[in-house]
Structure formats: C-alpha cells, structure tokens
Hints:
430 residues; 2 domains; six-stranded mixed beta barrel; two-stranded antiparallel ribbon; 14 helices
Amino acid sequence: MNLLILSWKYLSFRPLSTGLNAILLAFGLAIITVLLLVQHQFEQKMTRDAAGIDLVVGAKGSPLQLILSSVYHIDFPTGNIKMEEAQRISRSRLVKQVIPLAMGDNVQGLRILGTNHDYLDLYAVKFAAGKAWEKPFEVTLGAESAKILGLKLGDSFSGSHGISVGSHDHDQHAFTVTGILAPSGKVVDRLVLTSIESVWYTHDEEGGAEPIASEVGEDANLAVEEAPDLGMDPHLLPVAARGFPVTDQDREVTTLLVRYRNPMAAIQLPRMINSGTSMQAASPAFEMSRLFELLGVGISLLQGLAIALVVIAGLSIFIALYNSLKERKYDLAILRTLGASRGQLVGLVFLEGISLTSMGALLGIGFGHGFLALVVALTTQEVVSLVDPWIFLPEEGLIFGYALAVGIVASLIPAWSAYQTSIAKQLTKT
C-alpha cells in the first residue's frame, strides 16, 4: 500500500479546499520570505558599502540624510562645504585619510561623483576595461552604469544638472569614458566617477566663471591660499589623483569620507567638528543602526501579520483534515480490514498534512521571490534596485521547516482520531 499516493488522492479529491488552504498558508510564508530577503540584503549591502568609512563630514542638516547621500547615494546632499574648512579637517592629527566628494550632476539618473582615486581603493574595485580617469572630463563607469547607459571605452556623453532626472543638460563639455569597472555588488556599481575638477569646471562655465587649473604633486593638501596660479588650460592638466585638488579660487566640495587615525578620534573628532565648525559630522555605523531600529518596528508588525496568517492557515488545515477524517471513517475501517495497521492510518493523515503544507511552503517562497521581482522591475527607486529578488538564502529552508511543523501540529488530533478507528463500530453503521 503506497500511503503517499493514497494521501495525494484524498487531497486531489477536494481540489478547492486543498488549494485554498495551501494558498492561505502561502500568503503568510510569502510575507516572511519578502521580509527575510529585504532585511538580509539591505543590512548586508549597507554594512559592505560603509566598510572603511568611520565618519562623514558635510553641511549642517540631517545626519541620516548626510549618510544616505554620501555613502549610499540614495538621498539629496545637505549642501556644500568650503574647501578651506575641508582641508583643515584633513590636516588634523586625529585623521588618517580624507576622501573628498563633489556632487551635483547626473546622467539618466545615475550620479556623477567627483572624487579622487582613493575612492576606488576604498571599495577595492577591479577594472573590466580601461583605466581610471586622469584628466578633467574623463570618467570611469561602474559596471551597472555602463550597462544602463550602453557606453563603452571612448564614448562621450553630457551630464545633466542636479541629482535626479529631468534637469537641463550641461552641453559645454562632454565626458569621455576611459574605464569601466568590474561588477562588485557595491554602491560604486551605479556611479559615474570622475575628478572633482570636472564637477567644478562644469558649473564654472555654466555661470561664466573662468575655470582654475589643478595639478598633482606632493603638496596636494596645501591650503587654498598657498596654491599656485598655473595660468594654463586646465583641461589639458592632470587631476589630483590623491588628496585635494590645488586651486586659488574659493572652491567647495560636497562631503568628506573620513578614516580615524586612532580610537580616540571617534570620541574627539565628531564633537570638535559639530561644535567648532559650520559643518556636521555623522557616523555611518550609528546612523544606520538607528535607521534599522526605526524600521524594525514596521518589520515586526509585518512579521506578526505573517505569523498570524500562518497560524490561521494551520487552523484551516486542521479543520479540513478533521472534517475529512470524519467523512472517511468508513474508508479507514475498510483499509484496516485490508491489512493496514493503526500506524499506517496515522502516517496517512500526517502525510496529508505535510503534503498540504509543503505545497503551501513552495508556493509561498515562490510568491515571495516573484512579488519582489515584480516590485524591482516596476519601480525606479534606487533603494529598491539594491535588492536582488532571485537570491535564495539558507534561512528559507527554515521557512520550509516551519511550514512542515505547522502541518504536523495540525495533523495531531486527526491522526489520533484515525488511530482510534474501530473496524467493527464503523462497518456495523448503517
């Protein structure tokens, strides 16, 4: 006697009841799957993208906005800061490294980020083709940026003003692609990287100002007032690959990514910047911890809803099995006369419950991934695009195990009832 085939025959005999119970369970498990995927990937990506950054320094405003805009590039910057103040931070004995960032333009919604080569080292990038920028208006594309823009080495394009799509184009100078990065799964994949001078010159010419030259040298971190006036065409000069570009004009950058020299800097430096300058300092670790804590309330509510749905599905399966068992008492008695033992009847009921919840679990996990894929495909939000809907986590095996446990618990009372089936009593009923 094949109990598995027999249990499936009983389930397929009532397709509507079986299907509704499986779908109800699937909805609860789908919510759990989506939450698991989103929470895991967001925390993993946020932690990875902030690795090596101890502090972010920028204009006064929301610390969280400063972190989101400068580290994850998913919000608007809080403003610009003066180069002179920024360089003062870099000369502090508490600071090991400073990476300046200049923002303000985009191409098809992808951010054009002015920085130096230290930014590439920060994320340990590898090149799929070409090399890093060396002159103003040369760019290095992240892997996903190159794919979205459809550009290759040597191609040119114009940027648009602002962080988001829809602003006017800067068509005075075209950017030229000199390098394309290999996929890394980090924030750099969706950026268009260039020199800080490129960002300056773009907005200089827009306002009619004369662009200022820069040069690479051992004194790249000179104060502004010490910078020489080279009196040459800046577009033919190399850019500052490390540190700050040299200029004799009042320049600005958007933010600074800072690494501490020693543990004492974590205590002293943020307080010094926040209280003694016109800038603000924010810790990525602290701000993201606070964000996850705030989001945790909503996630807990959704998890509670999903668990409630699973419990309701378990009760529904129990009722379906129990009612079905009452209707099949005579059939079970016949099976006993044909040689089935009490243990086989119990196994039959458990197989029905486990088969039903297994279907629900597979449907739920599939629904969860499918729903997430649909959301990612239909939205243009950069935050959502960070999620890969087709990553399968080991924790999803626990979801399947949880569903099986629900099936076993829901089958306990019906199985006990099947165990107590009396052959004589059922066969003598008219």
